[in-house]
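re: ur question from earlier - yeah i can do the single chain one, its not a big deal. heres the input i used so u can compare w yours
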Amino acid sequence: MITFTIDTDSNITAFATLKEAEAGNANETEFFSSEKELIELAGRWSMSRLVEIWNSFAGVTPVKKFTDRKKAGARIWKAVQQLKPGAATQTSDVAPAKARPGKKPKALKEAPTAPDGSKKAQVIALL
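and the output i got, formated as tokens:
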């Protein structure tokens, strides 16, 4: 059964067995091998950490918050299933959001004009 580890920096690594996972990790690393175990771990984490973990996966739509820990755990579990044992640690590979094109200013054809003696003409003269 594949065992996943998550360290204090929220990097997730997949291992083929629990023994492999225990052999190659520090004391502060947490282990999980099922969605239920992940959700139990998520109960001890802040919501901001769950968002950080989710947003660190490549190819996912970044979120600002989750509605609850159970849904966050379920979504993270689905993403974790893509990791293969022996592969590199999952880190933040999310591309920045594309900037939306803004409105371009319209070019003025001519300087504004106003009839002589009008208030508008006086204001234009002051400018």
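Residues 3-80 form one domain. not sure if urs matches, ping me
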